Amino acid sequence: MGSSPNAAPHSEPSPEPERAPGSVPAPHTPAGRDGLAALLAHPERAVVALDFDGTLADIVPDPEKARAHDGAVAALGRLVPRLRAAAVITGRPAALAVRLGGFDSVPGLDHLTVLGHYGVERWEAATGTVHAPAPHPGVAAIQAELPGVLDASGVWHGTWVETAIERKGGQAIAVHTRRADDPQGAFDRLRAPLAALAERHGLIVEPGRYVLELRPPGMDKGVALAEWVRETGASTVLYAGDDLGDLAAFAAVDKLRSDGLAGVLVCSGSAEVTELADRADLVVDGPAGVVELLGALADHLAVR
Ligand SMILES: O=P(O)(O)OC[C@H]1O[C@H](O[C@H]2O[C@H](CO)[C@@H](O)[C@H](O)[C@H]2O)[C@H](O)[C@@H](O)[C@@H]1O
Fold first, then answer.
1. ipTM of the complex
2. Is the pLDDT assigned to residue 30 strictly greater than 90?
3. Is residue 51 among the annotated active site residues?
4. Is residue 10 part of a domain?
5. Are residues 183 and 40 both part of a single domain?
6. Residues 281/207/51/167 CA torsion (nearest 10 deg)
7. CATH number at residue 125
8. Where is the domain boundary, 215, 238, 257?
9. pTM of the shown model
10. Atom of ligand 1 nearest to the CA of 221
């Protein structure tokens, strides 16, 4: 997709990773192979962090209808008890990710952490509670102005504007173009006016898969991941993501590796986003491939 977050679909299949012994797919980089070897040798020192939409959940036109891919929660339930810790790091509100993912009250996931809104919110399975800061005042101001800005863009007509807006618990607001007649054209046309709107109210625009999210600055998945890994005391980290918002987490893993930790970067591959595949140690075939990887890790660790 080059510099655009949403590439034109193509028909090339995702690369099929080689299989390491025990049928865990093998990373194609030396650093990734070292990271995987460290995870398999000492899972009690390893943590796994995963993005939600596009990584644990298939992309669907209506954000409310996203659900964890079949087998994702079961695979996590088998893998996570063998690790030091696990987290889901998502742009979604933490409680919504928990509901859509079905992560609560799952055997094996009783110590899962969900970091929502790119790390601003935190949900712990152990307590079932969410910690969230007070909303940035700019979000409410933008909510009031946004329908007018979208109407003026001419991308949607009438009530369709409302289907484009995702009100994210007052902490951020997302504009989706996937259901517009021309999703990429709408995305391109809205980018500048939404950037201007965000700037007027002290927010930033986070571009994603046919989505432009207006959210407060100061936190990203890289900061969230690095802080959480430090907190766990882990010496190995595996991170899996699919979208531009995950690049900060990829950069954090690179930095942790330069500090001496072992790491594995997994791309949940899609035709819509190619930037992560270029930087990953391992590319798998979307959420189905992620679930297969989690299951293979769990199987391997079960027979150790
Ligand atoms: O960090 P993530 O868990 O990947 O969340 C990022 C955004 O994902 C969601 O939008 C994406 O998934 C939708 C459902 O499949 C899809 O309709 C949309 O086109 C995708 O961009 C979510 O709705 C956003 O709020 C998240 O910020």
1. 0.99
2. yes
3. yes
4. no
5. no
6. 180
7. 3.40.50.1000
8. 215
9. 0.94
10. 1
